[in-house]
Amino acid sequence: MKRESPVVLAEVPAAIEVLSAHKTYPNGTVALKPVDLKIAEGEFVTLLGPSGCGKSTLLKMVAGLLAPTDGRLLLWRKPVDRLDETGKRLAFVFQSPTLMPWASVQANVRLPLDLAGVPRAEADARVAEALVLVGLARFAKALPRNLSGGMQMRASIARSLVVQPQLLLMDEPFGALDEITRHKLDSELLQLWRQKKLTVVFVTHSIHEAVYLSNRVIMMAARPGRVVEEVRIDEPYPRSPDFMVTPRFAAYARQLQDSLLRASQDGDEEPAR
Ligand SMILES: Nc1ncnc2c1ncn2[C@@H]1O[C@H](COP(=O)(O)OP(=O)(O)OP(=O)(O)O)[C@@H](O)[C@H]1O
Q1: Looking at residue 205, what DSSP letter applies?
Q2: Which residue has its alpha carbon closest to ligand 1 atom 13?
Q3: Where is the ABC transporter domain (predicted)?
Q4: Residue range 84-100: mean pLDDT, rounded
Q5: For residue 84, how far is its CA from the centre of ligand 1 (angstroms)?
Q6: 3-state DSSP assignment of residue 112
């Protein structure tokens, strides 16, 4: 007699499914060859690769900011433009904090809620909570010009958190910061990710940042942009900065360095179409 299949343990649902999605810009640039990628709820996935490999293009397609030339992108099993049907929300964090210079930190962070017509009392409560989460509670009334680069980025992250997203898409958010500040914000981001049970897709040029933060690193190559490799970082969380001085960290960094080198060389051999 045929045996019953074993009980299937509850699978972690996919937050993101990229199904043969590719992008050619109107000027003919093949920014991304077909990509197939599944990201489970709660993962921290990093997109790493040389300049021009299509990291931002892929992230913007996941956000629904850019339509693929062909293929599909699903968030919680629905096309990206029907995210509201899933009861989930996403937020996008850009490299530049893009704060309104004339408005206080508090008003900047409240902006998405004002635009969505959230009542003032509720909005203020959510802003206060977000400012505490990013360590800016004392600077609610400050103007952006009086904040350091790292603090401005914290304000930008707070602005993304007030919409209470389940998915955070971050395009080189700490790329313009000095190394010490970047490490600090990386650690804070990991805490937020765990505390809020977020799914994060994070674009970076930094191998060290990718190893420190991610469950999984997606390596991409340029000319034309494509996914070439995937590396799992099997290191438990919470990860402290001490992880960065371990032989395991060095081994992962080396593996990614080799992969990045291969990805860069591949691109030189294959001309863009
Ligand atoms: N609007 C556009 N029109 C035409 N080509 C574009 C456009 N945006 C990006 N590209 C090109 O598409 C390719 C992929 O760009 P993309 O910005 O996605 O790469 P990236 O990996 O994020 O690069 P970087 O690391 O430098 O930010 C590049 O060759 C880029 O020049």
Answers
A1: S
A2: 31
A3: 16-249
A4: 93
A5: 28
A6: helix
Structural domains of the chain sorted by starting position, each given as residue range(s) with its CATH number in brackets: 14-89+166-269 (3.40.50.300), 98-164 (no CATH)
Q: What letters, b where the CB count within 10 A reaches 16 and e where it falls short, cover 2-29?
A: eeeeeeeeeeeebbbbbeebbbbeeeeb
Preceding omega of 236 cis (within 30 degrees of 0): no
> Is there an atom of ligand 1 within 6 Å of 51 CB?
yes
CB 166 less than 6 A from any atom of ligand 1 = no
pLDDT digits (tens, 9 = 90+) for 49-83: 999 999 999 999 999 999 999 999 999 999 999 99
> Which of 27, 35, 56, 219 is the pocket-test mutation for ligand 1 (most atoms within 8 Å of CB)?
56
From CA 76, how far away is CA 88, in angstroms rounded?
8
Pocket lining: 206 vs ligand 1, CB cutoff 6 Å: no
Q: What percent of the chain has pLDDT over 90?
A: 81
pLDDT at 176: 84
Determine the Cα angle at 116 with ends 62 and 155, to 5°. 70
Cα→Cα distances 10→7, 13, 213, Å:
9, 9, 26
Index of the ligand 1 atom closest to the CA of residue 203: 22
For the CA of 220, the closest atom of ligand 1 is: 21
